[in-house]
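User: Could you go from structure to sequence for me? I need the amino acid at each position, not a summary. Structure tokens:
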């Protein structure tokens, strides 16, 4: 039931609106923001895409909550670090599931 509730919340919120609550301007100096996919792999919107989006929203909610409770620089850095790890993990899980279905994530190499 939780998955469907989360999915309904994602579908009801226009893209980019949920991310507006994340205080990217407060990111620690030198911290590299992981890439968050804005479009699904191969343009396929399936359960794996929606699960990925739900994972991103959950990570962002946790980040905002952790930053509110942070009392010092180390707490804030830990919150951002945990968020980045969750974003990377969500992407790895999404790519893995899409590979199982025969879809590959595009990769551009400049060199």
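Assistant: Here is the amino acid at each position, in order:
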């Amino acid at each position: 039931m939780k998955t469907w509730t989360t999915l309904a919340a994602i579908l009801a919120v226009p893209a980019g609106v949920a991310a507006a609550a994340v205080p990217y301007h407060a990111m620690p100096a030198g911290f590299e923001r992981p890439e968050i996919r804005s479009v699904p792999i191969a343009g396929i919107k399936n359960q794996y895409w929606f699960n990925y989006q739900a994972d991103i929203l959950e990570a962002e909610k946790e980040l905002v909550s952790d930053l509110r409770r942070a009392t010092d620089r180390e707490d804030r850095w830990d919150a951002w670090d945990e968020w980045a790890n969750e974003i990377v993990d969500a992407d790895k899980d999404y790519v893995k599931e899409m590979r199982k279905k025969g879809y590959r994530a595009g990769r551009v190499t400049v060199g």
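One structural detail worth keeping in mind: The first helix runs from residue 2 to 12.
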